[in-house]
Amino acid sequence: MDHDERRRSITAAAWRLIAARGIEAANMRDIATEAGYTNGALSHYFAGKDEILRTSYEHISEATDRRITEALGDATGLDALRILCREVMPINEEKLLEARIAASLWPRAMYDEQMAATNRRTMDRWRAQMAIFLEQAREEGTVGDIDVTIVVEQLLNMMMGMQILGVLTPGETSSERQLEMLERFVTTL
């Protein structure tokens, strides 16, 4: 196993701990144990817990963006917008796991400049993509005269809210309910 593979396995171990027991459970000793390494061995791959958490946060963003790209294919307009939103929303076990981890890491992202920068880049990318899809929808005649900037912010707020509520109240914020909310919102455009 090479250096990068070991970093990925350590990051995956941190993910499992955070998802199962919260961010406080992700101490270096427990991460090392979960990854199958000694505590001291982690220092060969990461400078410390903060770096592992930053890498975990970046990985969530990258994983979501990969899924979006793969799912989009040749979709445009409202079809593409729906796809992007569904890849962010916690509507299956994988996405719910990512939402649980992201929600655990958000408080750190408020104060850790590197994590904040990762979050800004992700949100900026999603905003730009959604704006393109909404402009395509306008050109296709599938939306009315909308304020694209406002609609993008409404969608982002709705998706982030779904991540929080999908983790905290999964019964009330089920995947079916999330998909229904998205569809009702999009059809009003």
Automatic annotation (TrEMBL):
It comes from the Bacteria. GO terms for molecular function: DNA-binding transcription factor activity; transcription cis-regulatory region binding. The keyword Transcription regulation applies. Residues 4-64 form the HTH tetR-type domain. Keywords: DNA-binding, Repressor, Transcription, Transcription regulation. InterPro entries: BetI_C, Homeodomain-like_sf, HTH-type_TetR-like_transc_reg, HTH_TetR, Tet_transcr_reg_TetR-rel_C_sf. Gene3D superfamilies: Tetracycline Repressor, domain 2. Residues 27-46 bind DNA. This is Transcriptional regulator, TetR family.
